[in-house]
Amino acid sequence: MKNMLLLTLAAACFLFVACEEEPPYINYTPNTVTYETTFVDVAGLPAPQLREVLVEDISGVRCVNCPDAAVIIKRLKADFAGRVNSITIYPNTSSLNSLTLPVNKPDKGFVSKYDLRTDAGGQMLATLGTPNSLPNGYVNRKLFAGKTDRFIDRTEWAAKVTSENDSVTPVNIYVRTSYGADGKLNADLELRFTEDLSGDYYISMALIQDSIIDVQETTDPNIGATYIADYPHMHVLRKMFTSNLGDKINATPNITLVKGRVVEKRYSLELTPEAGKAPYDKKHLGIVAFVHRGGDNVVVQSKEFEVAE
Length: 309
What we know:
This protein is of the alpha+beta class. The chain is about 15% helix and about 35% strand. The strands form five sheets. Strands 9, 12, 13, 15 and 16 form a five-stranded antiparallel β-sheet that branches. It has a four-stranded antiparallel β-sheet with strand order 1-14-8-7, with no helix packed on it. A three-stranded mixed β-sheet has the order 3-2-6, covered by helices on one side.
């Protein structure tokens, strides 16, 4: 009987190790996460993805040079095809109101239809650093050598993107989208870690929208400041699936980010109309998902995905 008990305990221990059983995965964002799980799958380890660089363009509809920043983003996405992802942030930040508030010039015939600012954008700037002027932006949210702030002038974006675009990533990001019967937008996220990582890491998922047609202040070399009535605002941050500053991936105790770690989550977001905001156009929606470190906020991988209509 004693030998039988020992054999039973040994078999139980073997099964526990082989299955890599882990504690239940706790839902830390109950408003948007409808499913989540994690496990280790070393046998199914994929090849590391090429690293893609995230450029966050801090913009404003009253910023005369912001259209130039949009041109630079478009050029970067063409020059580094498939390797640069972008989010245009119109922050709800009082210190930048003179550049970000909707245009209201009825005497000149220019009045914004929409307010593109978001509280999410405001919170990001409060954490990452708020510039005194626009346009500005973050490249992988990195504090580069010789800089005192993370935000970078548009004239430096190309050089910084080049310096960040020469490596593979320690985590692969996959997202599939669908609409539920309730009309909510579902985003099925899968993270696969291809290296061991120490410390805390976060996942952020931003819903962006292209081609929001509205007024934009600009500059003309002949007449100075002027307005474009039908300017296409691109890559506009609309909402966050995650919390505004990201959801901690290894929040659950004893979950280590080891090679082969798989994290799966389903986020569901309600696209309800909001007063003063642009309608959600399914033809022009996208998702930018990115993994960033705790502490220094540096983005280690980003991916951009189209949203299924």
